[in-house]
Amino acid sequence: xxxxxxxxxxxxxxxxxxxxxxxxxxxxxxxxxxxxxxxxxxxxxxxxxxxxxxxxxxxxxxxxxxxxxxxxxxxxxxxxxxx
Length: 83
Known about the structure:
The protein is mostly helical.
C-alpha cells in the first residue's frame, strides 16, 4: 500500500518533525509528485523568510512595563526594603 502524503506531512518534514523512516518516504514522494515538491520548496522559502523576521516592542510599551514593575506591590521602594 502506497502512502499519500499531504502538505501537513511536508510541513512536518520541513521542521524536522518526522521519523527517519517517514522522512525517506516523504523524500520519495517529493521526487515523484511535482505539486508536492513545489509546495516543499515554497515551505522552505517561507521558513527561511520567517527566520529572518526581527521584532521589537515599541519604546512606549517597554516604558509601560518598566513603570508597572517599579510600582508593583511586590517591588517596594528601596527605602521600605529591609536589609
